[in-house]
Amino acid sequence: MKHLDEADLLLYYYRDGGKVQESEQHLKSCADCRGRFEELSALLQMVVPPVAPKRSEEYGTEVWNRIRASLSEKGSSRRWWIVSPRWAPALAIAALVIVAFVLGRYSRPPQSPVTTAKISGSELRNKVLLVAVGDHLDRSQILLLELAHASGSGQIDISQQQRRAAELAATNRLYRQTAKEAGDTDIANTLDELERVLLEIGHQPDEVTAAELQQIQQRIQAQGIIFKIRVIRSKVNDESHPRTEPNTSKGQTT
Amino acid sequence: MEMDETAVVARVRAGEKDAFRLLVERHSRDIFQLAYRIMGNEHDAEEVVQDTFLRCYRSLSSFESRSSFRTWIYRIATNRCYDRLRQRKLEPQPFPDDLESGDSVIDLVPSENPGPERHLLSKEIGERLRRVVGQLSASERTAFVLRHFEGRSLEEIASVLDITVNSAKNTVYRAVQKLRSELQPLRAAQ
Asked: For residue A157, what is the enclosing H or E element?
């Protein structure tokens, strides 16, 4: 048998693959390979698992208490959807009207020129954050609108939206914490609501039935989250791109 | 006391939501440990635990008793870790205050006869390990932790990462090579 290469030695170390017996025989008779294997073994033995912080016997109960409310939400909302399916078409139409209203209400012409005054480091950081939050809100809104307008029959693949929602939820958490620390409760509260919706979508299976999709859509609409996003987005936009103050002495208006 | 988890799952599916508590209480600590090993910090591990159970609860209808509940939920937990690691790579890091510096990715067991030199060497090894593990891709890190710490088979790793067994083998190999290049000089000093 020819010498064992590095990949063979690694497979043998973990006892993987179909050549374990063969490798063992070779190692018995080949000092060179045996030496290399001992070196690899010693190196891998240096890498031991990290010791996780201790968790008490009650940890499972703590976890249960933390997630219990989310399970309740799901249960109650499902029941609500189940008992009132006859309202679904009316709700869908109402939702479309609301979305159309919101889109019209908050669509703005291009902003007037921004101020070019010198800004401090913290102001610059805030501006960067606001731009980032604005982008995050846009992406979240697009996702929610996609789902709100999705349709189909049989098993509907929402894996892409589900994955995006999970990604957005993770990013959302950072923005929410930052907004909270900065004392911006409006943004923090809306991001909190958004996060719950995103997590809900992120926890859906890759494929859903038409009825399940409708439940998701109703969930989105029931919370009015798209409307809230639009409101906060508008606020973020104003703060990150403040309009030039009207120069009253010259009678200018914006 | 033994618990028939399949029966508990059936109760939850039948609408007995509180029965889910039994499953949460049984598996939380082990899932936390798994998540900590992969994520390398307590905060992310906690979030993975919560995410895992929420996802598990919502997907219970897709659970088939062909595998054990434990196997199934571990797979969900590993997937949550892998997804988070991938997201972390994509995300900007504008909030350094949020990062938990000092969290250990990999620690070393102290030597049986630790002298000052040995302590220094252990510290140096630990730092290099943290550095190189931090540089592994999400798939390399997940694959390595599953194979090296958790003793999972290449087939299981391939299934979690949604790749072929051969790719899983190569992924573990790449991770080990990176660890090796970082640790080899210290190995000579031992």
From this structure: strand A155-157
